[in-house]
Structures are given as structure tokens and as C-alpha cells.
Design brief:
heterodimer, A: alpha/beta, Rossmann fold, FAD/NAD(P)-binding domain, 5 domains, five-stranded parallel sheet, 34 strands, globular, B: mainly alpha, Fumarate Reductase Iron-sulfur Protein, Chain B, domain 2, 2 domains, 18 helices
């Protein structure tokens, strides 16, 4: 079909026309082949000009449009939409940048700038001669979402998706749900406990027919892409039947000779190899930890419901989107960091919080009553050395809240906060006030002179040069030193690698845009929520979970997905399957297929982003990129190079 | 190396400290204080030392006395940590530290003990009157000499040793080298501040309060002089009689105004009143009022038939001289002046 192209050259109110002779550009290109109409305009993006363009396209039945103006970052979409409004497919629009690339760059050479602008517009016209109408690729989307991790973020997202009538599979690696929050006691602001929060979410989630919860479950393979993820999930058995006699079970637990540190209490207590009693145990069923079980058989002889014959299962799950909510690990200080693993009375904040939960009337540590507690802040956060340069956000609040709980529960305790500036942002500031008002002592360390912990034979001595007292050296003899540790990514984070999720410099999963696309990842169809993305408190985790649930739902809700039509296409005749393209592809969009007996490359249209990385590596030139074909690019080069 | 003592903060609350632990060290208080200077910066430093319980630093500091409590710091405190009242409670605490008998501290901290002390002195006066068979002439004669002796004894055995202790805390213990001539040269500072409270004019909008205070000081000292040395109650000299009337009126009118402010709580300075603050203004008021009435009864010739009136005056006088002057708020008048003096001495020796 013969091309009828409309060209608009923009003054940009002087931004362009002060250095480029806009009228001369117009005259230079008006007789180019295919150009039916050439105009200049003061502001191409203005409402009135957009209206004129729509009229021009309709009246002249244009099938190609070029606007020579600013960067396509600013207005490519704007003019694409103008074409659509005039009934012309937006892929027939071509943008020419004569502001950033011409007028602003060559303000010292008006003649030269005008010459360059003419070439750029000619190149755009050359491309416009080849443009075609394109329709988005449509792919089928499985209407179901897999949520990985059942902490508050995972559960909240599950409930939200369930509300939107979307089937949910929630895959939890541990045998109990609730994540980190189940390990916390009373929390700000309501003093509701972690157990209560988790119970509430679990009860809401488990009654829903469209939510399926797997515990002891791990994703082991992932095939597919947005709309069509095929996961294999390995389910580790509990070796205990779900419905069983609690009395007998308890006897079996008592009889178990294996004692291991209890990770739920951050190893400050111990448990048996067969265990069930988390304070917020859901599902309410015991489990045998086969890593430490010696198969002595004592429990089996007491309780009929123990069943070592249970087998590992592999399930196939087919979903349209995956929502990652795998959470965080508390930072583990290295040996000797502020006396950790060196002095007996140095613990981390998570351990301390469990201590408050577990000690009823007196706060005891290693047989000694605790009177003076020194909190050392920013351990594992805001590090000069060690790599964690970020602030973990939740720790100041958490430590201060713990100090308030301690003082309330054991009034004779004194709290000393060795901080580096308190960051109890928002409503949490009131905790800081309450803690100060109750007589807690705050001491602030210089960035380059952190507190020092030494041992005097019976207690830890914490020394600091206190900023707030003019840098004077102070010391506190502490019965207990609490290292206020921040959040780090999960040590076992292989599920992220399975989905090829990009990580940030902090090693947490990375979003596409911190502000504007905060729960999407570069892997289409995979969203992130909660503290797997970076340190968050519960409120922030739940906010992101709700947002990720909505985003994931938007991929699968219609049962069909549209993707950009600009993808690579393979010429089956030329392709010899040398594998170079698939190696170059950053998105794993290229695989091998058979064309009769011949091996050729296959592009997965739902994964291909049209980046073009595969094109130059192809030795037989068998790949073309839609809308950037060799013809288009070559004719643009010709236009640019021609005098 | 300083050792932190969080218990001190709790102790200071018994001296009237209010919520000072809530301080987050922004320094607004110091910034708005019109008396604070870069060399003598307060109240934040004092709040910080109190929170940490660094008692030795507090004891050697004169800064609590350099504050005249306009209350701007409290008004501007974003944490309602009440630095103004903290400075006041530090003055009370310092008073108890300077006092070698320890009675000051007990009376500040315990209202029941203060009441017992007042009751005991009342019983003493009545017992004495009964012993003298309520003979008015003997009692007035005794009352006149009691005043002279009490002033002398209180000063010699209580106040002088306490000032020496203060001197020990602020000059000798921190090992500040001061030449004798410096002490002599600075004495002017002591006199000026004792009688005029000149420094308090540095507080914003403080002229009225300063003036009231000034005439109260002069009225009080003059009445003391008139009763003790001019023997007002027995004098026939018309000038002396009128002088006494005027002085006693000044005292009870000004203190009446002070009491009213403490009830209305319309200024920061009046919002928190400890028993010691009330005792001071009420007893000074009663002193002026009862002295005025006694002399009026004499002039109307009805004191013979109403000798209870003199007994009432004597009771107030005894309580004032034995409780409030040596152990109560009256001492601030003395310590403040000496603080200004020692401050001058320290600065000259630096």
C-alpha cells in the first residue's frame, strides 16, 4: 500500500526553533517520497495541535505519522495515542528527537543543527515508509496465583486474592505457617501479639475453599512464564497423622531422646526431634524433624499416629502468576561483634524478645536475674564495613517497644540504649517518648566510634563516647547486652534463583521501580511482597502484600494477557540452531524446536522483550525484530548518511 | 569515666522534677533561654546530667542558680520535658546537698515531716506561753530577743557552714585555683545580686516580677531591722511606727499577689508548686499580716485583752526562723547570691 505520511516539526516554544531553522527543515522534507503533508507547530504536544493532527490523519487518510520534537521518553506515547484516536494503529507513528539530540546539543552551530535535524527527520520518514499495523500478542493466562511464603504478607495476599475469586496456592517451606511474626510477642500499636495476628489471618485464610495451603513444601522446578507457570512442589511429610490423640502424642514427645536447639526461640531453648508446640502452631499438628531424628522408634511404640511410612510427594501446580513473600532473616552477628558468642550475656534482639515471652516473673539469663540491659543499635545495619549499608527501619522501634515491655513486666529493670540516632518514624515516635519518659537512658555513638563491649569477669561493660554529653566517655555495667540486629535476606533464598529474580545491592529481591512499580519484578508475572524485598515492618509488609496481590491478579484476571508485539522472529529457512541467540538472550525466551527434522530456534513471545540482543549474534542473519527490521534500519542509515 | 545512675532521676522527682526524662536533647530550651550564653549554656546540659544522674557534675555546677525561671524553655519544649521545673528541682536538691544537717532534704521530700515540724514549733510556743502564765509583757520581751538570737544562731550554725560546703563543692573540690584578692574583688557581685537580683532582669518581660521581688526583699529586710533594732512593737516614735506599718503592708500585699499567681497557674513559673513554695509565700504573708495586726492592736489598745494575737504572730515568727529560713526556700536567696559570687570568682580565675 502506498504510504501517505504526515510530518510535524515542533518549535518547542523556542527550545528547538532558537537553534534549528524549523521552517527550513519542513521545506527540506516536504518533497520526500511518501510525505503528503508537512507542518511546523509551536507545541506539538499542545491540545490544539493534537486535535489538528487527528483531523489531518482522518481527512487525508494518513497511514504514517512523524513528529520531530523532544525525546521519545517524553512524548512517544502521547503521539502514538493521537494516531490511535484518529483510527490509525499506533505502530505507524515514528518519533524523531530534534531537541535533546539536536537543538540542545548544538546550540553553538545553528546551520549545523538545522542540517542534522533534516537528516534525523528524513531517517524517521524512511522508517515510517515501512511501518505496519501491529496487534499485541495474546497469551492464555491461568487464573490462579502461587504465593511463596505464608508469613503475614503471604497470608494477607492469599486472602485478598481469594476475595477476588482467584484460586491461590500458598507454599510454605516450614511446617508451620506465620513466618517471623509468629515469633514476636506483643507488638506496637495495639499490643496484639504475633500469635494473635497469625491466628486471625490463618483462621480467615483456611476456611476459604479457593485457598490451598501447603506446609513443608518447596518449589523445586519452574517452567513457563507469565500466564503459564508450571511449578513442581515437593511436600515433605510430617510423619504424624493430622488427627491424633494429644495425650499420647505428648508422651511420645517426652520419650524422644533427641534434643536440638529450638529455632523458633532463636536457639535460646531446645526441643525434641518430634515437636509441635509453637505458641502459635498452625496447622495444629506435630511433626518429626527427620534431619535430627535417629529413628530410635521410641515415639512410634507409644503413639499409633506416628507414621514413618509417609512419603515425600511431588505436586504439579499450574498458575498464571507467582507472588514472592519469602521474608527475611535476622542478621546474625559474627563472633566477637560487640561480644557476640564471646561473652555469655550478649544476645540478639530476636532472642531477647523470645526471652521476654518465656520469662514470667523475673527476667533471668543463664541463672542470673537481669537488672541492667544495654541495647546496642544498628548491629548489621548502616555498616561502614560488612556491606549492609542500609537501615533496617524496624529495629529502633522494635528495640524501644521491647524496652517498654521489659520495664512493664519487670519494673526493677533499667534500660540503656546505645544508639546511632533514633529512627522511630511516624506513629512509632510515641514509643520513643514513652521510653524516655519512663527513665530509659539514651546514649548516642559517633559513626566512627561505636560502643565497645568488654568483660569484667561477671558482667559486660559497655563503653561509649556519648554525643549527647559532649562526647564524654560513659560506661554501663550490663547484665545483658542486646544487639539490635537488622534484617538481611533469607540465607536460603534459592527459590529466587529458580525464578531468576534480580537482586539489589542489598541482596534483597528487587522491584522494577522503587516508587512507580514497587511490587513488580523484571520477571514478568512474578511479584514481590513483604520483607523479601527489603526491611519492612508489618504494616509496610501488608501494604506491599495487598498491592502485589492486586498486581498478580491483574495478570490473570481476564484469563488472557496482552504483550507487546515487538518481538524477535526466526526465519526457519535460514536458522541452523547454533545456540548463539539463546545464550545471548537475557530473558531465557529462546529455546530449540524441531521444524520437521531440522533444529531451529523458537521465540517465546510472552517472555521476549524485543531487546534485540539475539540479532547481532546470529551468524546466518535468521532473526528479525518486528518494527526494527533490517529494511527499516538500513533505510534509516541511508537517510542519515545521505548528503 | 562517668558512671550512669538512672536512680538519681527517680530521686530528683521527689524534689519536684517533672518528666525531664522525656528530653531528646534537641536543645530548644537552651536556644530560647535569654540568660544562657555559649560559655554558660543551660538548661539542656543540666537536663542531660540529671537524666544520666551524674551527681558530682551537678553538685559542682552553679548553672541551676544562674536560671531565674522565666519558663520560656518549658513553653518551647517539644517533649513537654519541663526543663524550667527541672532547674527549680535542681536548686532544691542542691540546697539539700549544701545543708550539713540533712534536714533540708527531709523537709523538701516529705510533707508529713514538714507538718510535724510546724506542729512541734506551735506546741513549743504555747508551752512557753503557759510556762510564763500567758504574761503578755514577758512574752513580747522574750519574742524580741528570740528574733535576735534565732537570726544569729541560724546564721552561725546552719547557713554559714552550708555556704562553706557550697564553696567546697564548687571551688575547692574541682581544684579551682583562686587567689585571695579575687575573692575580695568579687565581693561587690555578692552584694549587688543579693539585694537586687539584677540578673533576673535578663529574663524576657520580667520587669514587674523583678520589681515585686525587689520591694519584697527590701520590705522584708527593713521590717526585720525595724522590729529587731528599732523595736517596733514597743516604739513610741511615730516615724518608726508608720515605717513598720508600711513595710508589713508591702510584705503581705506582694506575697498575696504571689499566692494568687500560684493558684491561677497562669505562668510557667507558677504551674508546679511544691509544698516548700507554698510554705515560703504563705508564711511570709502571715509574717507581714500578723505583725501589722499586732501593732494595730497595740495602737488600738486591745492587745492586752487579745494576747492570742501576739502568740499567733510569735508562732509564725518561730516557724519562719527555725524551719523556713534555715531549711526552706529562704536559703535560695542566700545561695543564689553566693552562686553569682562564686561564678564571678571562677570566671576571674579561669
Amino acid at each position: 500500500m502506498e504510504k501517505k505520511i504526515g510530518v510535524y516539526v515542533c518549535h518547542c516554544g523556542g527550545n528547538i526553533s532558537d537553534y534549528v531553522d524549523v521552517e527550513k527543515v519542513r521545506q527540506a522534507i516536504e518533497d520526500e517520497g511518501g510525505v503528503m503533508l508537512a507542518k511546523t507547530t509551536m507545541f506539538a504536544c499542545s491540545d490544539s495541535n493534537q486535535k489538528d493532527m487527528v483531523d489531518d490523519i482522518k481527512k487525508n487518510d494518513l497511514n504514517g505519522v512523524v513528529v520531530a520534537s523532544c525525546s521519545p521518553k517524553l512524548h512517544l506515547t502521547t503521539f502514538g495515542n493521537v494516531s490511535e484516536r484518529a483510527g490509525l494503529n499506533k505502530y505507524n507513528y515514528v518519533h524523531a528527537n530534534i531537541r535533546e539530540q539536536v537543538s540542545w546539543a548544538h546550540s553553538d552551530d545553528k546551520a549545523g543543527a538545522t542540517e542534522k535535524a533534516i537528516h534525523i527527520v528524513r531517517a524517521a520518514i524512511a522508517k515510517a515508509r515501512f511501518t505496519e499495523s501491529l496487534e499485541p500478542n495474546k497469551i492464555e493466562a491461568q487464573k490462579a496465583v502461587a504465593i511463596i511464603g505464608s508469613g503475614v504478607a503471604g497470608m494477607k495476599a492469599a486472602i485478598e486474592l481469594s476475595n477476588m475469586d482467584c484460586p491461590v496456592y500458598i507454599i510454605e517451606r516450614e511446617f508451620f505457617i506465620g513466618g517471623r511474626v509468629s515469633q514476636w510477642g506483643a507488638m506496637f500499636t495495639t499490643n496484639e501479639t504475633g500469635k494473635e495476628v497469625v491466628t486471625r489471618l490463618y483462621n480467615d485464610m483456611i476456611r476459604r475453599p479457593n485457598v490451598t495451603v501447603f506446609t513443608g513444601a518447596e518449589v523445586i522446578t519452574n517452567v513457563g512464564s507469565i500466564g503459564d507457570f508450571k511449578l513442581k512442589v515437593k511436600i515433605t511429610p510430617r510423619y504424624v497423622k493430622e488427627k491424633c490423640d494429644r495425650g499420647k502424642l505428648q508422651q511420645a514427645i517426652d520419650a524422644c531422646p533427641v534434643v536440638v536447639p529450638d529455632e523458633f526461640n532463636f536457639n535460646i531453648t531446645s526441643r525434641k526431634a518430634i515437636y509441635h508446640n509453637f505458641p502459635s502452631e498452625y496447622p495444629q499438628a506435630a511433626v518429626i524433624d527427620m534431619k535430627s531424628c535417629t529413628r530410635c522408634g521410641k515415639c512410634e511404640s507409644i503413639c499409633d499416629n506416628i507414621d514413618f511410612s509417609q512419603k515425600e510427594e511431588i505436586l504439579d501446580i499450574h498458575v498464571g502468576s507467582v507472588l514472592m513473600a519469602t521474608g527475611f532473616d535476622p542478621y546474625t552477628p559474627h563472633d566477637g561483634e560487640f561480644g557476640y558468642n564471646e561473652f555469655a550475656n550478649v544476645v540478639t534482639l530476636p532472642q531477647f524478645k523470645r526471652m521476654i515471652e518465656l520469662n514470667e516473673n523475673k527476667l533471668m539469663h543463664q541463672g542470673k536475674e537481669v537488672k541492667n540491659i544495654a541495647y546496642i543499635y544498628c548491629v548489621g545495619s548502616r555498616q561502614e564495613e560488612g556491606g549492609n549499608t542500609y537501615c533496617s527501619r524496624y529495629c529502633c522501634t522494635s528495640a524501644i517497644h521491647a524496652s517498654l515491655l521489659v520495664k512493664k513486666k519487670y519494673p526493677s529493670v533499667y534500660n540503656y540504649h546505645f544508639n546511632r540516632g533514633i529512627r522511630t518514624y511516624g506513629k512509632q515516635e510515641s514509643l520513643y517518648y514513652d521510653s524516655s519518659a519512663q527513665g530509659d537512658i539514651y546514649l548516642q555513638a559517633y559513626e566512627d566510634a561505636l560502643p565497645v563491649v568488654t568483660w569484667n569477669g561477671s558482667n559486660s561493660i559497655v563503653k561509649i563516647n556519648d554525643i549527647l554529653t559532649g562526647g564524654r566517655e560513659m560506661e554501663v555495667e550490663a547484665d545483658l547486652v542486646v544487639l539490635v540486629t537488622g534484617m538481611v535476606p533469607r540465607a536460603e533464598n534459592s527459590v529466587g534463583t529458580l525464578f531468576k529474580l534480580p537482586k539489589g545491592r542489598d541482596k534483597f529481591f528487587n522491584e522494577i521501580h522503587m516508587k512507580l512499580r514497587p511490587v513488580e519484578t523484571f520477571i514478568d508475572g512474578v511479584t514481590i511482597a513483604g520483607a523479601c524485598q527489603g526491611p519492612k515492618n508489618i504494616m509496610e509488609s501488608v501494604n506491599s502484600a495487598l498491592s502485589a496481590a492486586t498486581k498478580s491478579f491483574s495478570y490473570v484476571s481476564k484469563g488472557e494477557l496482552e504483550t507487546e508485539p515487538i518481538v524477535a522472529v526466526i526465519d526457519p529457512v535460514l536458522c541452523t540452531w547454533c545456540d548463539a541467540c539463546s545464550k545471548a538472550c537475557p530473558f531465557d525466551a529462546i529455546s530449540m524446536t524441531k521444524d520437521g527434522t531440522k533444529s531451529i530456534a523458537l521465540i517465546n513471545n510472552s517472555v521476549c522483550k524485543g531487546c534485540g540482543m539475539c540479532l547481532p549474534v546470529c551468524p546466518t542473519d535468521a532473526i528479525e525484530l518486528i518494527a526494527y527490521s533490517n529494511n527499516e534500519i538500513e533505510s534509516m542509515i541511508d537517510a542519515l548518511a545521505h548528503d | 569515666m562517668a558512671n550512669i545512675d538512672p536512680k538519681f532521676g527517680e530521686a530528683l522527682k521527689e524534689y519536684g522534677g517533672v518528666n525531664f526524662n522525656a528530653c531528646y536533647n534537641c536543645g530548644n530550651c537552651t536556644a530560647v533561654c535569654s540568660l544562657s550564653t555559649p560559655e554558660d549554656s543551660f538548661p539542656r546540659e543540666m537536663v542531660r546530667l540529671s537524666v544520666l544522674g551524674l551527681q558530682d557534675d551537678l553538685k559542682s555546677s552553679l548553672k541551676p542558680w544562674l536560671c531565674y525561671y522565666c519558663g520560656e524553655c518549658t513553653t518551647h519544649c517539644p517533649q513537654t520535658a519541663n526543663p524550667g521545673e527541672l532547674m527549680m528541682s535542681l536548686r532544691r536538691w542542691l540546697t539539700s546537698q549544701y545543708d550539713w544537717t540533712g534536714l533540708s532534704g527531709l523537709l523538701y521530700k516529705s510533707l508529713p515531716l514538714s507538718i510535724i515540724a510546724f506542729v512541734l514549733t506551735t506546741i513549743g510556743v504555747i508551752a512557753f506561753a503557759a510556762y510564763e502564765s500567758f504574761n503578755l509583757e514577758t512574752i513580747i520581751h522574750f519574742g524580741h530577743y528570740f528574733e535576735m538570737i534565732a537570726i544569729g544562731a541560724v546564721f552561725t550554725f546552719i547557713l554559714l557552714p552550708n555556704i562553706i560546703r557550697m564553696w567546697w563543692f564548687v571551688i575547692l573540690k574541682p581544684k579551682i585555683q583562686v587567689s585571695f584578692s579575687t575573692y575580695v574583688k568579687s565581693i561587690r557581685e555578692l552584694i549587688v545580686h543579693m539585694f537586687t537580683q539584677k540578673r533576673s532582669l535578663g529574663c524576657d518581660d520580667n520587669q514587674v516580677r523583678w520589681f515585686e521581688h525587689l520591694i519584697l526583699v527590701f520590705g522584708y529586710l527593713a521590717l526585720l531591722f525595724t522590729t529587731v533594732f528599732l523595736d517596733w512593737f514597743s516604739s513610741q516614735n511615730l516615724f518608726v511606727i508608720i515605717l513598720g506599718y508600711v513595710e508589713s503592708v508591702v510584705i503581705f500585699v506582694v506575697t498575696f499577689d504571689f499566692m494568687g499567681s500560684r493558684i491561677k497557674k497562669n505562668k510557667e513559673i507558677n504551674k508546679f508548686s511544691q509544698p516548700s513554695d507554698w510554705f515560703f509565700v504563705i508564711w511570709l504573708f502571715l509574717m507581714g499580716l500578723t505583725a501589722f495586726i499586732v501593732r494595730a492592736f497595740i495602737d488600738l489598745d486591745i492587745l492586752e485583752t487579745n494576747s492570742w494575737m501576739y502568740l499567733l504572730h510569735l508562732t509564725v515568727l518561730v516557724q519562719w526562723a527555725l524551719i523556713i529560713v534555715p531549711f526552706g526556700k529562704w536559703t535560695h536567696f542566700l545561695y543564689r547570691s553566693f552562686a553569682m559570687y562564686f561564678d564571678k570568682v571562677k570566671k576571674m580565675s579561669a
